[in-house]
Write a structure and sequence with these properties.
Two copies of one chain form a homodimer. Chain A has twelve helices and 20 strands. In chain A, the strands form five sheets. In chain A, strands 4, 6, 7, 10, 11, 19 and 20 form a seven-stranded mixed beta sheet that branches. A six-stranded parallel beta sheet of chain A has the order 14-13-12-15-16-18.
Chain lengths: ~375, ~375
């Protein structure tokens, strides 16, 4: 694992627990540059609106790699120790007195959002990830004291899902149907909602419409996008810089395939796409995608790219096209995508790994994020590793 | 008047008329680099769907200056002789047998669109300016032979509105109410629709909504935008690079004013605007405008800017914001804005000029396009100049 930007890494050792806190076994990186190892973190007692659950699986997202290896930003470093993971699924073991949404024994999940203000009109609309005061990410974030629904020591960073238990306000809990394969549910809480949210916002969950939808980047996000858009009844065109992903894209449901570096291939679908979801997170040209859009079409980018992106304004004017950005999705939409995937048996391709595999998996994801398989950490492996 | 790019200017002298054509007096530039002078052009006889009208006034748009001075593109030159003008208003003098929309004696107008295919689904939706086969501009364009609703010699370029008569397919005619001040109607067919179309497309003509709308660039387009958005009941924030236009913007109806180069001024309206219409046609930074947008806000650019534009993708992601382009508007929307302006007495600020003023006005517009007054050519001045 290659860490970045040592100068901005923040060190904030785990303090002694409060009297009300209790130890939970976790797996994380204690100090910048070190390998994964078992850590003891402290979770808080269930408050009246809280849900405590035993974590069974936690998906390994590419942004976990960025967070752990201090690659998220060149300005704001990660805080160590760090326990990553924002695709948590497990079973409820305790609920607060006022919790109404779930019961002990039910399966639940938590995605990228641990908290938001729940006061602003954006939270009111169930778009917590766009909370005007900023949402609190599941891990590697400080608690926001002015609107906190997170208990425990307010000075300690939040811990993610590579751990045996978590506690969270019921607002941020996603219900997982009993008969949904639990090991496949985690990545839906991140990759799934990241693709579902723009499909929903730009009209593609209205199944009375038959749209032409492009998906750029045929990795973990892209294949999930192909599956969701196909299951919604749309014609899906996979878009990749080379021809290498053609068969993979077809096998996931793509009816068309465009090689974005080949003008002849772009010309075949030129002006045909209503919506393009672009998952590429490295700097690249947007020109071929704008060419592919119809009048009034929208190119939605999901990649966190720091360098300025360029576009040709005239090409937008000529077809009243839009370039937009989209970030995960709110809690109601996350519940929707879980329920849609359950009903339609749309699941990510996952590979279960144990804590002993973390260095290998992280190195692989850092070197090449083009795989369509989402790795999922089996929390059982904690015990086996002892 | 300073002309550009002599190498790409196209010379195509006016040929002898067809037997069916007749002479019409016009004012134009015969050869690249010359001044305006009287020209004899030929219009065609009224066909069964055509409307012939006597032109009374023609607005002088900044893009007339670009066309006449060969500044529209560095690749495709203007064709000389050139007769500019795409804000024509006048009175019907003859109609074809099958014309149903207007009668002799009624006032009418023609904007930027002389023709489109009328076959594609975009034309079907009344968005002729986004015709998938490309619309035909009112002047300085060749006729498209494969879907032509324009009569006369198919080899001759189209002539604009600095002329005494025009003939056009009734589809592209806009009806001007009898009691509308005719000299003020022309600029609505270009500046008016350019602002109305994005207001309409992005939800601001739904008067049950009260939006916060930013208008960038307080010139001819911008002041029209302020007037329209205010008349629709929205809160309008004028946005300019300096403080100089504050009083002008206020007098046209802007409730707020942001100096885009002043971070403290931007901070005052940060995250508050639902929609921003950006009329600036020179290269500039979009960052302050994105800062001003709300969650789900849209920045619509109307300026024809050839150099690549830059934006920060992360800033779009964090509020699911969009950057879009918009180009004039279709025929139904153009009729709507004329009718809205009539009903609400929203008119551009115009100054009548004669043919003797053309060099002065063109030089002024080329040197400084920041004026809020739209010049309008009084076609009566043709006679007076003789």
């Amino acid at each position: 694992m290659k860490f970045s930007s040592p100068d901005i890494a923040v060190h904030k050792p785990i303090p002694e627990p409060l009297e009300s806190e209790y130890p939970v076994k976790a797996w994380g990186v204690e100090k910048f540059g070190e390998n994964f190892k078992p850590l003891t973190i402290y979770r808080y007692q269930v408050g009246e609106y809280d849900v405590k659950f035993q974590i069974k699986f936690c998906g390994i997202c590419h942004s976990d790699v960025h967070n752990v290896l201090n690659e998220m930003s060149t300005k704001y470093g990660s805080t160590y120790p760090i326990v990553p993971g924002h695709e948590l699924v497990g079973t409820v073991v305790e609920v607060g007195d006022k919790v109404t949404r779930v019961k002990v024994g039910e399966n639940v999940g938590v995605g990228c959002i641990r908290d938001s203000c729940l006061l602003c009109d954006v939270c009111d609309r169930g778009e917590e990830c766009y909370c005007v005061r900023g949402f609190t990410h599941t891990y590697n974030t400080p608690k926001k004291k002015e609107h906190c629904h997170i208990g425990g020591n307010p000075e300690v960073q939040n811990w993610g899902g590579y751990s045996e238990f978590d506690v969270i306000h019921e607002h941020f809990i996603i219900k997982i149907p009993d008969d949904m394969p639990l090991e496949k549910a985690g990545p839906i809480l991140c990759a799934g909602i990241t693709m579902w949210s723009p499909l929903n916002h730009w009209g593609a969950t209205d199944t009375t419409k038959k749209l032409n939808i492009g998906i750029v980047g045929i990795g973990g996000l892209g294949t999930m996008g192909i599956k969701l858009a196909s299951a919604l009844g749309h014609r899906v065109v996979a878009i990749s810089s080379s021809d290498k992903k053609r068969e993979l894209a077809r096998s996931k449901g793509a009816a068309g395939y465009v090689v974005s570096n080949d003008p002849a291939s772009v010309a075949e679908e030129s002006g045909k796409l209503d919506l393009i979801l672009n998952t590429v997170s490295a700097h690249h040209s947007l020109t071929p995608y704008i060419t592919l859009l119809k009048t009034d079409g929208t190119l939605v980018n999901m990649g966190c790219i720091a360098a300025p992106m360029e576009y040709n304004q005239f090409s937008l004017l000529l077809k009243r096209a839009s370039i937009a950005g989209s970030l995960i999705g709110g809690i109601p939409a996350t519940q929707e995508v879980i329920d849609f995937c359950h009903k339609n048996e749309v699941y990510p391709d996952v590979e279960l790994v144990g804590v002993g595999d973390l260095e290998r998996v992280y190195t692989e994801l850092q070197e090449n994020n083009s795989g369509a398989v989402r790795y999922v950490l089996d929390i059982k492996s904690f015990e086996e590793s002892e």
